Amino acid sequence: MQAESLHQYLEHVASNGLLLSPEQQAALNVSLEITKKNYKFSKVYFWGKIIGLNADYFILQGVERDELNGRKSLYSLNCMDWKLLPPATDEMIENSLRVKGRFMGDPSHEYETITVKKTEGEGGDLELKIKEEERLTATIEQINREAAIIPRGAFVKTPLEQIHKNRSFEGLSVIEAGKLQSYLHFTTSVKRKYRSVLSQANLEESIDFLNCLEDDELKMFWSLQYERGNKLVILRNLLWLGFTFFHVPETPQHGYIYIGLGERNIDFPFMI
User: Fold this and answer.
1) Closest of 191, 163, 167 to residue 69, by C-alpha
2) Burial of 198 (0-12, 13-18, 19+ CB in 10 A)
3) What are the start-end ranges of the E strands in 3-94?
4) Could you report the per-residue pLDDT of 195-219, keeping only the tens digit for each?
5) What is the DSSP letter of 121?
6) What's phi and psi for 265, nearest 5 deg?
7) Where are the domains of the chain?
8) What is the pLDDT of residue 201?
9) How far apart are CA 35 and CA 83, in angstroms?
10) Rounded Cα gap, residues 56 and 79, in angstroms
11) How would you classify the pairing of strands 243-247 and 155-157?
């Protein structure tokens, strides 16, 4: 959610129980603007909150020029002091998936040593020591890859291969807003797929440069519904409980937020 519209956008997801206290909102309104200036970001987005046992991590993402590539993540324990997270690598994500249990709320916390058994001929077992800060940045990246979405047409790709907001985007129609094919994964980490839901003649290279949810192998994890009549569309991700996207049809207003435990929903097969 863009920092300038945080208070307004939080109201769109409040019915889903995704709330921040008035004190937290007030602190964010001040600190996000300061952080934007200190790090010389062109824009800052409040990404969400990962709930820990002893403290919670508040997450923001900063944009320099390109809206998608090179986004930087920062975390805070008090909504005021922000620390830059290192970029997540595939190895960090793979290792973080081996950690079980809740986040502690301490970036310096080191989890118990994890022993990874190797196959015959690969040498001895591998012992991994993972710090919570590494797990935090890996979890944020994983959620972004699997859940971050945008409405089709909200962003454009320029001839210089940069991603920018589409100033002419006026929102999806009420009918189109109710279709999974109208939403795109906002990540470049996955291989581009052919969009079977659109004919080749209707594809526009400047806006159809991302994979759509309808072609996603994990599309069963998405729940789409209208709220307030047809004035608001909500998409919830059931793989990452607490991830919610909203769009107000026929307006440019859209955004997403994650407020959860930072753990995949392994109980999903029992929910269907």
Assistant:
1) 163
2) middle
3) 43-50, 57-63, 72-76, 83-84
4) 555 555 567 888 888 999 988 887 8
5) T
6) -85, 90
7) 3-96+136-262
8) 53
9) 10
10) 10
11) unpaired
